[in-house]
Amino acid sequence: MKAKYLLTLVATFFVVYSTSAQEGMTKIPSTYDRSSITFYFMKFAGDKHVDDLSGKIGGIQFTDKYNNNNFDELVLNAPSADFRGVKASNAILNYLNDKGVGKQIISRWYQRADDGTMSMDLIFDRGMFNATDATYIKAQATKRGNSLLQDYGNRLIEKSYILILDYKNVQTMKEAKIEKMKGWKATVIAYLYKIQYDTEIQNALYDCWIYPEDTPEVKAEKIKKFNDLKIPVAFVTQTSVNVTASQPSEDSQLGKFVKQKSEDQLLMDLAQKGYDESLYYLEKNYEDFMVKTTIYQTKPIRAKIGKKEGLKCDNRYFAYEYVYDEKTNSAKPKFRGVIRATSSIVDNRQVATGQTPTSKFYQTAGRKLSEGYLLRQQNDFGIEFLVGFESGEVGGFYARADLRTGRFIGIREFFIYGEFGAQTADYPSFKDISFMHYGAGLAKGFMLTRNIELRPYVGLGEEKASGDDIDSDPRVSSDEGLSVLYLKVGANLALNLRHNIQLMGGIGSYSFIGNAQNGDTDTETSWTDFFDGREGASAMFGLKIMF
User: Fold this and answer.
1) Do the beta carbons of residue 158 and residue 190 sit within 8 Å?
2) Which residues pair with 408 in a beta bridge?
């Protein structure tokens, strides 16, 4: 079993290694323009809780990262069952094209009125808002000035997207048979489409432009041309996320310490999380949605992005240096490190003036970074898996998973973790006893250097013991073995082997709470009376992979 485990671990290591090794070879756009999103909630008649949920869609807070191209009606009523399942993406695509949604969105860009007249005002405004300090300063050095920035709005039109969310299997915690919890859970399928807008379509649209001096006959002809114009929509990708909006119920021990929300409020939270998480995972893989900028300052690291780009605490960015390649006679980006946003995020939701403030970042991997390095948004799952061994009275195989919570609560390097351990040990009165423990807790990371992190933690758990000798002990009345709660405090030290692979070491101390339990029966005997000396410090060594 140990050999099989080792082979699995090594295989996983090289899969992750080979994947991450491609970072420096990726072709990376050096510019970033804001995309626009038109959002729809797809409603299926007959779905459980669908009316309650659809009533919450209008309350979703849409991110500032994208230009908002929403229409007044956010609900798309699914015409058939084909809009869910393997045929869904094509069924939705055909629906969008049949309804002319692409042309409706382009009409919104050009603010087309009922009489057929159009305006460039929104495009100019969005072009100005899209501008960075660098493009603003460059534009001011030209004769056209702000007019050049306004024209940038034209290139934003082709980055028009449609996001459709399908909330499947919406259940209350009670319906999901999750005890002592209240709230909701669902699976959210996100479908992403893009408007096919190119120079040919743009020229055809300009042929439909109505001018004040046009005669009624010319206006009628241009309106007809517009009515005949086709602006197609294309499928891009889809993703699926499981979301929950829940809390301990009022009748639970933990629920007494939590400010209670109503089921209605938690349903609103579910709707919001479905939107937020779907976009987060789309941004993880889709280039147009990844923010690009440059390092503006080091010590500390700062960049001119913030709420305007949807930046949140602990969002991850890769840093690249452009290095000249003699073979190709061109500069190529080389991966140099990883940084994450702190909670110091600037509100830059304004037109650039050349004096845009900066957000603060901290480095988690790589070499020393310099001003001017390219930064590229690279969302991660925020999940870390550790596998190793503990050495001490409580020892043996050890595994742990940490979840980074910064983007949810706004505290950098704050983690929720779960752990599991297994060991076989002998004691004077008991031989060949199998121990298993599992627990959960909180941890806070501190970067000591660019590649070394210290992470103190505290947690609670339960240890169980089983074996033939235990069952024959007179203090034990059933064959359910023994169990006890434990408190664990400690700290782990991580050394980067790569940005997503760490060599781990740590020390934790186990303190057992109360008497040993035999099923529901109190044995009135402490854990250390059963297992002499089983407490205290344990050293841990292992390997951690981050996703």
Assistant:
1) no
2) none
146: part of which helix (H) or strand (E)? Answer: helix 146-151
Range of the domain at 318: 2-29+290-377
Nearest to 172 by CA among 188, 185, 190, 157: 185
- The per-residue pLDDT for range 407-425, each reduced to its tens digit, is 999 999 999 999 999 999 9
pLDDT recorded at residue 25: 47
Query: Which tokens go with 126?
Result: 């969005």
Across 215-224, average pLDDT: 94
- Across the range 201-221, mean pLDDT stands at 93
Select from 295, 335, 342 the least CA-distant residue to 318. Answer: 335
Distances (CA, A) of 136 to 141, 294, 373: 9, 15, 20
Of the candidates 364, 373, 390, which has an alpha carbon nearest to the alpha carbon of residue 293? 373
305-322 burial by CB neighbour count: b if 16+ within 10 A, else e? Answer: bbbbbbbbbbbbbbbbbe
Domain check: are 121 and 48 in the same one?
yes
CB neighbour list of residue 530: distance below 8 Å, 6 or more residues apart: 427, 429, 430, 465, 470, 473, 475, 482, 516, 523
Measured distance CA(166)–CA(189) in Å, rounded: 5
How many CB atoms are closer than 10 A to CB 520?
7
Q: Which region holds residue 226: left if phi is over 0, alpha if psi is between -120 and 50, else beta?
A: alpha
Q: What is the CA radius of gyration of the chain?
A: 29
More confident residue, 232 or 135: 232
Name, in order, each residue with C-beta under 8 angstroms of 350's C-beta and a sequence gap of 6 or more. 308
Mean pLDDT of 132-151: 69
CA–CA separation, 543 vs 547, rounded Å? 14
* Contact present, 389 and 416 (Cβ < 8 Å): no
Q: What is the pLDDT of residues 233-271, one digit of tens each?
A: 999 999 999 999 998 888 766 667 778 889 999 999 999
- Of the candidate ranges 34-38, 181-185, 326-330, the one whose mean pLDDT is the lowest: 326-330
| Residue 4 confidence (pLDDT) above 60 | no
Amino acid occupying residue 160:
S
The string of pLDDT tens digits covering residues 35-74 is 999 999 999 998 999 999 999 999 999 999 999 999 999 9
User: What is the CATH classification number for the domain harbouring 509?
Assistant: 2.40.160.20
Please classify residue 546 by burial: count the beta carbons closer than 10 Å to its beta carbon, then call 0-12 exposed, 13-18 middle and 19+ buried.
buried
Stated as kind and residue range, the H or E segment containing 72 is: none
Q: Are 93 and 181 members of one domain?
A: yes
- Helix ranges (H only) for 341-455 are 406-409
Count of domains forming the chain: 3
Identify how many contiguous H helices and E strands the chain contains and give both numbers: 14, 22
Out of 350, 377, 404, a domain closes at: 377
From 354, 352, 371, select the one nearest 301 (Cα to Cα): 371
d(CA 417, CA 443): 7
500 within 8 A of 546, measured Cβ to Cβ: yes
